[in-house]
Every structure is written in structure tokens, then in C-alpha cells.
Amino acid sequence: MAPKGVDDSVIKPPAKPEEQELERKRGEQAALEGELADRELRSASLRAELGAFERRYLHFVGQRYAELDELKAQIAERLAKEQPENERAQQAARDARARADETKFTAGEKAAREPRAFEASAEMKRLYRDVAKRIHPDLTSDREDRLKRQQLMAQANEAYEQGDEPRLRNILAGYESSPEAVKGEGPGAELVRVIRRISQTRSRLSEIEAEMQELGRSDLYQLKSRLDEAGTSGRDLLKEMAGEIEERIAQAKRRLENPGGTMPGKGE
């Protein structure tokens, strides 16, 4: 019974242990989600910067390299045609054509090489079937869960098309251990869901850290850093590189037009 003068309705029973733990875990989740948002922003910014730099690089340098390597391939193929018995000339022509195709592909042009046909291993097919049986959006009537499943199935389709077996495994394992897989109501079930969300957030934080380190080690990042450093001195290395390649393109064109010309050296 409440003390005299105190309304029984304002006295709340003490929180149960699971309710106390749930409140604590929700605070931990909120802090981690704030940190995750900051890291996602840094990661997205770095990727956007590298993407913009790559487009500039391809615009100023990549396309010119593709043109130069195509000219080199044509020169090598002409020499090979003139010397059908010369195996070194034949091999040089094949190497030059492969290099030109690779450069075209990197620069975003259509390569002459035929694309690989799609092939899926038996394990890939088994994995995809498991994902579809467990995650397919038509298997739930819950609207939020359905949207989540649709996103995961889109990712699974992409992974399957790319032959990415580890990614398919991660998609399935991630859903099995997701908060959405926990059924039931009340503090106990909600506590499990919050714990799983915390685990997901920690896992994503680790993924972002690894992704950032990988980006920092990439050739593209190193090149961008070098060009950014030169930019502080007022130099535009991209345009300088483009100018040098333009000169080499002009030389290659002259050699191609000259029936007696020789193939450019490896370093040209």
C-alpha cells in the first residue's frame, strides 16, 4: 500500500532485469549508430572523390592511352603481316592487341575481345536456391520485412551474376542472424533484436574500416595523392600527362603512316 497522501497510480514497479538491460543496450545502439553514420559519410566521401578523380583521369589520360595502344597494336599487326614467318613479330602483335583491348576496357571503350559467357558452379546454384528459399520477399506478409528481403534478393542476384560465392554466403548468414529473424513481443524478444542490431552495426563498422584501408592502399588513391600534392605547387599533372601522351600519339601515327616505320619501343 502507498504511504498516506500518495496516489497508488504514480508508483511504478521496479524495472525487470531484462527491461534494464534493454534500456542500456538501446543507449549503446544509439551511440554506435551515430558513429556508424559518421564513418559511412567519410567512406562515401572518399569513394565519391576517387570516382570523380578516376573520371577526370580517364578523360584526360585514359582515352589517350587507349588511342596510343590501339595505334601500337596496328603497327605491330602490320609488321606481323609483313613478316608472317617471324614468330617474334607474331607474338608482339598478339601482345600489343591484348594490351590495347585491356586499355580500351579500362578506359570504358568496347574491347574487341569477346566477353566471357556466364557459368555458375553447382555450389553457386545451391547457395542461390538456399537464399531464395529463406529470403524471397514473397515468403513474408510483413511490409518492412518484405522491403528488406527485396533489397537482399537484388544483392543476391548481383552476386550470382558476378559469381561471387562469398557474398552470397554473407547475404544468407546476415539475414539468418538479423533482428528481423527474431519473432515475438515483449522485452525479451526486443532485447535479442537490439543485441543483433548492435552486432550488425559493429560488423559494419569493421567492414568500413577495412574498406577505407583498402582504398588507401589502391593505386588510384596513391595517384590521386601524388597529383593533389603536385596541385599544391600549382601543377596540373593530369594535363601534363595528357600532353606527353598526345606527343607519343603523334609519333605513333607518323610511324603507322610510314610503311618503312618500326614499332614503338616498350617504353614509348
Helical fraction equals over 70%
Radius of gyration: 30 Å
Shape: elongated
Question: How many structural domains?
Answer: 2
Biggest β-sheet description: none
Q: Compute the average pLDDT.
A: 80
Q: What is the number of helices?
A: 8
Give the structural class: mainly alpha
Contiguous runs where pLDDT drops below 50 for at least 5 residues: 110-115, 262-268
The SSE string, one letter per element, is HHHHHHHH
Describe the structure.
- The protein is mainly alpha-helical and 268 residues long.
- It folds into two domains: 42-111 and 220-257, no CATH class; 122-219, no CATH class.
- Helix content is 73%, strand content 0%.
- The radius of gyration is 30 Å and the shape is elongated.
Primary descriptors:
268 residues, 8 helices, mainly alpha, elongated
In short:
With 268 residues, this protein is an all-alpha fold.
Secondary-structure map with pairings?
Layout: H1 17-82, H2 87-106, H3 122-135, H4 143-161, H5 165-176, H6 187-217, H7 219-231, H8 237-257
Helix pairs in contact: 1-2, 1-6, 1-8, 3-4, 3-5, 4-5
